[in-house]
Amino acid sequence: SADTSMYKAKELGRNNIQFFKKDMKEAILNKIEMESQLFKAYENEEFFLEYQPQFNTIDDSIRGFEALIRWNSPHYGCVAPMNFISLAEETGLIINIGEWVLLTACREFNELQQRFNRNLCLSVNVSAIQIRDKNFVGIIKNVLAKTNINPQQLELEITESLFIDNMDETIKMLNEIKSLDIRISLDDFGTGFSSLSYLRRLPIDTLKIDKSFIDDLSDKDVSIRIVGDIISLGHNLDADIVAEGIENSTQLEYLKTNNCDCIQGFLFAKPMGVKDVEKLLQNTPSN
Ligand code: C2E
Ligand code: MG
Ligand code: MG
Ligand code: MG
């Protein structure tokens, strides 16, 4: 009857709220657990770096490598950065983790340089939280001094999220970084807060076209035109263009004919450990 179905609906609603509360509680507990695991991970050095090569389209030579963090957790197994970087940002731990990444990447790169002495670029991702940290420039100087890396071979990858607030402060900071002779790359370009007027004011050396545009290259006319526009925009700003996430030869051909400078993607190589980087350098001529 109508009465019992109403009763059932109420009962169901109550149960749903119970489920919802249980889910929320579980999610919160999981997050707290991961937070404590993340702090331990930092203390116990459970992180390591992989490097994904970037190639120059003009002669297929190696442009350099992007350092990408990995977390080998005894509790969770291997955790992708997508699943812990934002938590590290929320807790502020990204400042310490980011410093570890920068130091480790520069150390490992320096060892490769001593062995191979090649004209390569090391790209390191930095979070907006790190850049807004008052000590950031000091941290970079410290890493440069400790590792003896040539600053002109170091490139910091930043994202547009940096410019959401306090544009002037951010530009000042970036100019300070630039004065150390380090390159600045704008990562995931096209996905964030993009205003063309702010681009002109940024000391950008490299523009990375986000994978989402590259994904669409094979079949969508609009994306093809947009990628072409991004490439000319970048060249007008005197920036190198790196396309990321290239998985097939259709995308590659398109990027080559449209004067994209550099390419990075699974079609050429996945992120790899230092041993494999050494092998790759051994087997390729220098540019
Ligand atoms: P990102 O900086 O845009 O790095 C490129 C990501 O795309 C990497 O994922 C790389 O493995 C992946 N990728 C490259 N080529 C291809 C392809 O052809 N196909 C597919 N499917 N994927 C491709 P990863 O290593 O999982 O990193 C994800 C994101 O995590 C990075 O995106 C970056 O935003 C962040 N991240 C990684 N390492 C660090 C770090 O040391 N510090 C900070 N702050 N963020 C980091
Ligand atoms: Mg990046
Ligand atoms: Mg990117
Ligand atoms: Mg990306």
From TrEMBL:
This is Membrane protein containing diguanylate cyclase domain. Residues 31-285 form the EAL domain. The chain holds residues 391 to 677 of 677 of the full protein.
